[in-house]
Amino acid sequence: xxxxxxxxxxxxxxxxxxxxxxxxxxxFNQVYVTILINQFKDIYINSKCKLIxxxxxxxxxxxxxxxxxxxxxxxxxxxxxxxxxxxxDLCSCCxxxxxxxxxxxxxxxxxxxxxxxxxxxxxxxxxxxxxxxxEHPTFDYDYIDNxxxxxxxxxxxxxxxSDAEKxxxxxxxxxxxxxxxxxxxxxxxxxxxxxxxYFITPNNINHQDNLGxxxxxxxxxxxxxxxxxxxxxxxxxPYIMNYQGTSSIDLANEINESRILDILNKPLPPKEMEKxxxxxxxxxxxxxxxxxxxxxxxxxxxxYQINNYKEEYKDFLNSTTEWTYSNVIKDKPIESIIxxxxxxxxxxxxxxxxxxxxxRDDRDFRRRMVYHGIAGxxxxxxIFGTKNRL
Length: 390
What we know:
mainly alpha, 2 domains, Ankyrin, Ankyrin_rpt-contain_sf
């Protein structure tokens, strides 16, 4: 314990190499790992930059002797990986991802948060880290938050199409999952104007939410011909009534547009509909013809409806709770120290951490160019590549 607490990694390596009592190692596993993470915490809070290399190397020693880093290190039940994610030390996260064979990213803490949820608050420009994270075999695409919202729902609300498509493939069961508002992914995606065919299953096509509305009903409220056709082509039932006794057919008759009624009567395969809509938009030569008053009204109503629906999902975009370590390293300039240490550790490696550091170094170079007025157009960067919430 003393050696870990003081970062004396060389002596720790020699000592652990002599210990043959496996049961003793298991017994003190959580204690050792917790002591180590507490030292990291102290370094981050008090900016003890000169000490951090010793503890990174101590962590490497514990990994060498296969200590389990899936253990809780605080009262909330956070794992070391969750701790590093919360504070934004993505270099250490990458080290754990690549070098710790038994790493389990699916573990939830006592607040119901897991690595999958925390990943939603990592800035999208952290490409290397996010790729390494989501390709890890234990990354939980089946994650459900405390409000019964799936990870797939979170991706759709955030308009992360590529992540949503991957989640739809990796976790088929979440396509039929419903949240506390009795919404499935098809209803949410339709309301937000983000419907994709890979969200549709025979079980979710006619699902009704708390109001009794189906995905088709919401597509009609948006007056979106593509969505209406896609749902009808996949056997949506236009005669299902909501809890006010109104069906999709009733909505269509109320709108009273021939193109919508035609789709309900005879939907086309999606590619044919796309081609038809493109042809309908063609005007003289290569110019799109001007939209009719009816089309302009439909566009306005669609955008108005979508903006209203977006208000219902604002809570998705914010953390549901204040994270224990969210402000630990706020505005403390130790990133360059950590980056330098990992560069030395991975000098001859082509690992994810090295790639992350190269990506980070390139951004830092461009940031300096902006500071000196040599380049422009680069957004302000937050420390450690995490969003403000972290």
